[in-house]
Amino acid sequence: MRDISCKLLVIGAGPGGYVCAIRAGQLGIDTVIVEARKTGGTCLNVGCIPSKALIHAAEEYDRIADLASGRNTLGIRTTKPEIDLSRTVAWKDAIVGRLNNGVSGLLKRAKVKMVQGQARFRDGKTVEVETETGRQVIRAETVVIATGSAPVELPSLPFGDAVISSTEALALTELPERLVVVGGGYIGLELGTAFAKLGAKVTVVEAQARILPQYDAELTRPVSRRLQALGIDVMTGAKAKGLAKAGGTLLVEAESGSEVSLAADRILVTVGRKPVTQGWGMEELVLDRDGPFIRIDETCQTSMRGLYAIGDVTGEPMLAHRAMAQGEMVAEIVAGHRRVWDKRAIPAVCFTDPEIVAVGLGPEEARRAVSDVRIGHFPFSANGRAMTKVGEEGFVRVVARADNHLVLGIQAVGHGVSELSAAFGLALEMGARLEDIAGTIHAHPTQGEAFQEASLGALGHALHA
Ligand code: FAD
Ligand code: NAD
Questions:
Q1: DSSP characters over 321-360
Q2: Is 355 close to ligand 2, i.e. is its CB under 6 Å away?
């Protein structure tokens, strides 16, 4: 097989890698991308997209079940729904398949050469790929490491049989009767809620004092209430110790110190993700680390010249849109543009019920950063659109400097608030002040009006509260 020489080599075709390669191709850079599995990486194949498909199916099922219960106030009556999970999974797989083809098509259109196989560094400029037809050597002027992340395994609960990661959970064709979720963070709560809506008896075991510890308690309270309403048992301050000898039972050390046995058909372990820093010859390179991650500077360059790293392998927040933004920036740097990482905020969305959005600083972080802050808060219970959707739970919160009213952060919890994340991100990125948001006409009736009202509230003159 003839060696390949190129200007840019990208390792990993997840959101970070494929966006980097597409942008590089658009800029006329001779680019090769190597992928061991499928284009789209974790996000497209076993992460963002399939999880949101399952969450949507579960929401639909739950909505119809609620209508069928006769307890709803809409005046609609229907019969109890049924679900064929194998068909739901087939629908989800079809969406993933369409997007796989879409990404491959975009790479092709950008004239990026795709090589399928596991890449391994020989040195900082040379990589070998084990392809189906033999070993391919690729030499490149610049290399981008975009190898992503993998689920963390608990030594006391290794993956296998009933103990599963999110990847297996997203492929289940039969609903587990009893599901125990270890880890009440993003994945555990997004998927745990979906399975509970579909009819599984779900218990969440969280080591910290409360669920979603990365968000403040005011934001997570509506989610806790909904978990309770869905019949999900949440054990906080609890540690999973391992399986009982008899099998089918998880032993948990409860907050009180006592041991609790939880019978389970499946145990979903979602205690975080770790960077993929093994299996590609990192030991052949001299790369500084930042904890378990690859250390990068404000241009995503590693400690080796001409070697960049992007996405989950470089640290928190491990989010697809951060990986994409880094990928785009690195491609432009390789093309000779002057770019540095100067983003003011990376929006975070948790697709729980209700959803949570956080952009920029929360009240406590803001108080630590500047001496005096103003906070505006508007509940969806006073928002007409939220009421007409039976989605009154939650609020929008705006955090700003008291002296010049510069917005420092915006958060929301409520039904469908993920779609407000774009407006929140834009406000921060544009350096909006409270007056800019308050002075923008927001269409009526929309949930976005709560953003305007929260800003008016911070200025001391909310109109509808
Ligand atoms: P990855 O997507 O992990 O891609 C890395 C790619 O590199 C993989 O395809 C892998 O096969 C390939 N690779 C690795 N090593 C090699 C090698 N040696 N040779 C060749 N190829 C290699 N984020 C969000 O922003 N929103 C969400 O809603 C969301 N939901 C999620 C739900 C779940 C269940 C999970 C697990 C994650 C979710 N995430 C979400 C996180 C998101 O998936 C990641 O942040 C994102 O995929 C990171 O992109 P990446 O390009 O860094 O790496
Ligand atoms: P996470 O960090 O969100 O949550 C892990 C949870 O497990 C934490 O609450 C932690 O306290 C708990 N925990 C850790 N060890 C434990 C133990 N031994 N017993 C019980 N609880 C324990 O991690 P995740 O849910 O696995 O998700 C991984 C990453 O994937 C996220 O950090 C995020 O970056 C990304 N993700 C994002 C989205 C989204 O953007 N909507 C969705 C899913 C995943």
A1: HHHHHHHHHHHHHHTT-------S---EEE-SSSEEEEEE
A2: no
* Mode of pairing for the β-strands spanning 239-243 and 249-253: antiparallel
Say if strands 201-205 and 178-182 run parallel, antiparallel, or are unpaired: parallel
Q: Of all protein residues, whose CA lies closest to atom 3 belonging to ligand 1?
A: 148
Query: In 3-state terms, what secondary structure has residue 192?
Result: helix
* Nearest C-alpha neighbor of 394 from the set 304, 308, 444, 454: 454
> Closest ligand 2 atom to the C-alpha of 316?
34
For 348-458, which CATH class?
A: alpha beta
User: pLDDT tens digits, residue range 148-206?
Assistant: 999 999 999 999 999 999 999 999 999 999 999 999 999 999 999 999 999 999 999 99
Does 415 qualify as catalytic in the annotation? no
Bridge partners of residue 349, in order along the sequence: 357
**Model-level pTM greater than 0.90?**
yes
Query: 206 CB less than 6 Å from ligand 2?
Result: yes
Report which of 325, 289, 293 is spatially closest to residue 304, judged by C-alpha positions.
289
Equal CATH topology for 4-46+89-150+274-334 and 163-271: yes
